[in-house]
Write a structure and sequence with these properties.
This protein is of the alpha+beta class. It is built from 3 helices and 3 strands, in the order ααβββα. It has a 3-stranded antiparallel β-sheet, with no helix packed on it. Strand 2 and strand 3 form a beta hairpin. It starts with a helix and ends in a 14-residue tail after the last helix.
Length: about 90
């Protein structure tokens, strides 16, 4: 086991240092390039979700095929579903 801080460094700043990019990426500081993920909870916990993703400072859409389908069908009445879904 490692500490929480060490575990986070193992997935952020340490890989940047190994690649020789530690002064450019891997941590948040003025003048550095940053891809940032805002998590719903502790990013090291499986139950956490990415709530927002920014790549080079640009917010990325969080829509997936799954979320689009969920939104499309979540309010349909049982009678509006295609025949294959009726039981």
């Amino acid at each position: 086991g490692v500490s929480w801080g060490e575990a986070l460094a193992m997935i952020t700043s340490r890989p940047a240092e190994v690649l020789g990019l530690g002064r450019e990426i891997g941590s948040l500081a003025p003048g550095r390039r940053a891809d940032v993920v805002i998590w719903s909870d502790d990013p090291l916990q499986v139950r956490s979700n990415a709530d927002m993703v920014l790549i080079d400072g640009v917010q990325q859409p969080m829509d997936t095929r799954q979320t689009k389908l969920r939104e499309r069908y979540k309010d349909l009445s049982r009678y509006a579903l295609p025949e294959a879904y009726k039981r």
